[in-house]
Amino acid sequence: MKSIIKKILHKIFKKITKVEIAQNKYGSLLENKVILITGGTSGIGKALTKRCLEEGAKVIITGRKEGTLKKIKEEFNSKNLEIFKWNINEVELIEKNFEEIEKYFGKVDIVFNNAGIYTDKNYLEITEEEYNDIMNTNIKSVFFTCQYFMKTLINQKRKGKIINTVSIRGQQGAYEPYGISKWGLWGLTRGLAKKGIENGIIINGIAPGITATGINGIDPSENAYYENNGDNRVALSEEIAEIGIFLASNASNHIVGQVIVCDGGETLI
């Protein structure tokens, strides 16, 4: 009914939508933006943190280990970076923790749902506890984080963005918990985008192929070779972070509900 009324009003008043083309300048792409990055202490999350700060954003990162968070805070040594200890799968704490996080810079404009866990255990050996831990972290926490953040933006009549770290495992189908969770996250990203854009909230995702991160046990300084894609190498966290910067910036404001794949052509082979 709402969409029908909009169409009728549009025909009556012949409303012309004003479009402003983003003029982007590196070094200030995210100026005046406050960004929350879950799982921001290593790999893709750490690379995202670095680039967001470089582009003028104020950043809050979460992680499970206070010691690791403090090391990142010291390493970046920026007044625009705050840290917050949070096991993201504790969904009952989302509202309370968001309220605490918003006290740092007064608001949150963009959320990167980047936290995730993985196990390489054989399918026949995975326990229910391990299955639940992966699902709670990789998909359930994202569902309820998005829910709370979207409610907040709608109530405050503000626009915002959500970027989810998915995986090409979400495109290939899977039987192990990690792949199943990322498959679900792929669908959630696209589905939520339909709801979000009605309220000025832009939601997209990034689907990396195998990436040189701690979770994969790969150090690119030692060996980045990978035979299963056309580029014959793994992705770097910094490459994935650049996609994140693009999606967070005004340059991507007309991209909605998309999951950008960065896998060196692996899903084409």
Automatic annotation (TrEMBL):
The keyword Cytoplasm does not apply. GO terms for molecular function: oxidoreductase activity. Keywords: Oxidoreductase. Transmembrane segments: none annotated. Pfam families: adh_short. InterPro entries: NAD(P)-bd_dom_sf, SDR_fam. Belongs to the short-chain dehydrogenases/reductases (SDR) family. This is Uncharacterized protein. The lineage of its organism: Bacteria, Fusobacteriati, Fusobacteriota, Fusobacteriia, Fusobacteriales.
